Amino acid sequence: MICRKCSGPGSLIIRKEYCYCNDCFITNINHKFRACIGKNKILSPNEKVLICLSGDASSTVLLDLIHVGLSLNNHKKLRVIPYFLHIIERDSEGEEISKVIVEQCKNYNFNITLVNIDEYFNKNILCNDNTMKNHYQPSISKNILLNIPTSISEDVLTKMKQNIFIKIAKQLKCRIVFTAETTTLLATRLLSNIAIGRGSQVENDIGFADKREENVKILRPMREITNEEIDHYLRIKELNPATDILGKGYGTSLQSVIRNFVLDLQENYPATVSTICKTADKIGSVTDNVNKKKCIICQSNLDCNQLNLTAVDATMFSRKVSSKVINSNENLKHIEEGNNLMFPFIYEKLCYCCSRNISQLNDPMLQTLVCRNDDK
Ligand SMILES: [Zn+2]
Ligand SMILES: [Zn+2]
């Protein structure tokens, strides 16, 4: 066991292959983080950055990496003005997690803004004095997320959070948002995306930068760090995450089945996971982003109906062959007109996947609420 950097005694092995001592390992992770930001050249000096912390293992490491970067006093100093944000999720567990995150930030001398997930339904989230405002009954998100299949609620939750990130970034005049997705998580998301019908959105959902929103870019500076490395980092620096939602066996959703598959891959074929992500980098969108009609929930382009065969066509086809409807053209006409019962607002306001998500909310009032993102 010899460290591959300093040739001193090694203490850990990454990907069953590379040996490091603790110091060189931590330096290497900091370097990966900075290199990822640096090579993409999106940040200008003293950029205001909204840093979104979920409290899980990777977000705990992100917080530490930011702190290390800001504390440096040489040319490597991280020149950003950080604003920290945590979104409190639906239940009492969410309250607990938020307390731990506030404590973590206090240890680093950072302030953090807490926002309830229900603020998704609120137009102006932050008041002038940065205190929270809540106009809606606190159970809206809970109702929505409990009454639909878990595969869909995971996706809805992700999109709701992303919308809140962007709204708050705009209010704080941040052009940049950091989120803490690791290679492992992004590989999972890539495979899930394809399975749930977000194949056309892979570039923005998995790449370094999500550029769907014109004035705010969501960056993923930890996308070259794996969960294995996160675990070592936490252990060496004795950091305790507030939550461990990435753990195996969590939930029964499609996403968690895929997550377990990716975690198994990582354990047994460690190189495969980063290969999955590199594949995503090669998938670019066919069209450019400018002046296109966009989905009001996920901001993806809505011009996919120009394609020859889409997931919607496939679903409509299987509906046709399994029902007694004789004139199928009638169905497809409704899709084009946008008032389709099976896929509400499809191509008019929503992409395929968001429309299918909405269709699962049986209460029309909830459907309207989720779609009220419209008026920005
Ligand atoms: Zn070393
Ligand atoms: Zn969408």
Shape: globular
What's the number of domains?
A: 2
Task: Identify every distinct bound molecule in the structure, by name, code or SMILES.
Answer: zinc ion
The biggest sheet, with number of strands, parallel, antiparallel or mixed sense and barrel status, is:
6 strands, mixed
* CATH architectural designation of the largest domain: 3-Layer(aba) Sandwich
* Total number of helices: 14
Fraction in beta strands: 5-15%
Query: What percent of the residues sit in helical stretches (DSSP H or I)?
Result: 40-55%
Low-confidence stretches: 127-137, 331-339
CATH class of the largest domain: Alpha Beta
What is the succession of H and E elements?
Answer: EEHEHEHEHHEHHEEHHHHHHH
SS class: alpha/beta
Defining key terms:
376 residues, alpha/beta, Rossmann fold, six-stranded mixed sheet, two-stranded antiparallel sheet, 8 strands, 9% strand, globular, binds zinc ion
Task: Characterise the protein shown here.
The structure is a single chain. With 376 residues, the chain is an alpha/beta fold. The protein has two domains: 25-282, Rossmann fold; 303-375, no CATH class. The chain has helices at residues 22-40, 57-71, 92-108, 140-146, 150-171, 183-196, 202-206, 227-237, 254-268, 271-282, 311-321, 328-337, 352-359, 364-370; strands spanning 12-14, 18-20, 47-52, 80-88, 112-116, 176-178, 209-210, 217-219. It has a six-stranded mixed beta sheet with strand order 5-4-3-6-8-7, sandwiched between helices. A two-stranded antiparallel sheet has the order 1-2. Strand 4, helix 3 (92-108) and strand 5 (112-116) form a beta-alpha-beta unit. The longest helix is centred in the middle third of the chain and has 22 residues, at 150-171. Residues 3, 5-6, 8, 20-21, 23-24 line the site of one zinc ion (ZN). One zinc ion binds at residues 295, 297-298, 300, 350-351, 353-354.
